[in-house]
Amino acid sequence: MPWVVAWVLASLLGAVWLGNSELTRLKDTFSADVRIAHRLLSQRVVQQEAVLATLALLGGTEDTRRPEQRLPALYPQILSVQRRDRDAAWADSPLQAAEAESRRLGRAVLASVDLQRGRYQLLQAAQPNSFAMLIDIRSMVPWSEWPMAPDTSPVQLTLSHAGQSMRLQGGDVTPLNTLGWRFQLDKALAADSQPFVLTAERQLGWGQLPWVWMAGYALMMAGVMLAARSLINQRQERHRARELLRLGQVARLNTLGELAAGMAHELNQPLTAVLANTQAASRLLAEDAPDLPPLRAALNQAVGQAQRAAEVVQRLRRAVERPQLGSQLQALELQAVVDKALYLMEPELKRHQIGVSVTSTDSSLRVLAEPVALEQILHNLLMNAVQALEEVPAVNRQVKVDVRRDADQGRLSVSDNGPGIPVDVLPRVFEPFFTTRSGGLGLGLSLCETLAANMGGALTARNGASGGAEFCLSLPLSLGAPGTV
Fold first, then answer.
1. Is 79 helix (H, G, I), strand (E, B) or coil?
2. What is the pTM of this model?
3. 374-386 pLDDT tens trace
4. Domain holding 300: CATH number?
């Protein structure tokens, strides 16, 4: 579940980043296209203003051929050109008013605007003649240089003035009644004589987000998460293997010590008997006839060899005897030791389909113990439980670990729901070389009891009330001892 949550969060963050990047790109493209369109239209209105100003400048000559009438052939957007001669008057009152305004401002002005039909009149007052041009807006747009495809572009362009508007480009702007994004930009054309405002709008919906890239990113993050999980699992497995190897090495050394101690104990008794018998024989021979010195010498040599053998055995026992653990005790959190042991045993427990439940009345309970010895005891007890549950159906296999305070001691119990310990075997489970399993040495529980005793604790065994075996380890509590782990 943590990996799934991490993948979901990473995918969401990536999707937000990709979506925001795409929106930023679309907005930048929108702004760039609108700026180009505005520049092109501004160039045209300035051009038209310049054409009208040129007519006014050259219109002082009396040319009956009226050259201004040739302008529509040169400029498609100019539909017609009207001229007011000297001492004449405009036929339309709006033109008369526009001329007065043009004289006042000293530039061209709008005489009339009909954006519904897409036309407007531009007038320039001058002496002796004034001129007015009727301009078609759609023909004014330089479509060959236009930055957008007018028929398919999603950007809507509108030209507006004084409450009138004309749509230059349809676009795809529908009422925003769902979640989405809208870009809008208003820019006035760069000619005071033609103060039209170009409005650009674009609406974006959820369908325009880069879903393919988002899905690809999510798949990539899934691959990254799987690779990271695999690497972490490999590191955990290597760490677990190292810890198990360390425990195995310590167990082999301790088992060797237990074996040597048992052998020394077993061999020391017959050697002692040999020594006593040869010494008695030597004393008896000393009372016989003097012709027995060679026999006495031989017996003395036997005594010497027996003593030497006993010394060799004692030296072997001292060489492999386990060091005393009293000086190596540390304050350990019992719950932390249990967690570490279960972590190391996790593959074995899963392989045998064994469920584990841990109960603790005090998670900070600390005891005095030697770390490796305590780990080895708990590991052996868990392995015994695993072996005992081999006879139980997989769906019913359970191991319970209980950690609690018991007076001035910390108590750790490991119980299973296996067949339990036979009544006749129970008193002998801690005897060296006693085992009920074929191929076993019978030293595991004996070693655990010895290690517990060397730490000032005790290890006991019994059958649970509801079946199965229960082993209980008691260790002295730590009272602020140094070296706390």
1. strand
2. 0.54
3. 888 888 888 888 8
4. 1.10.287.130
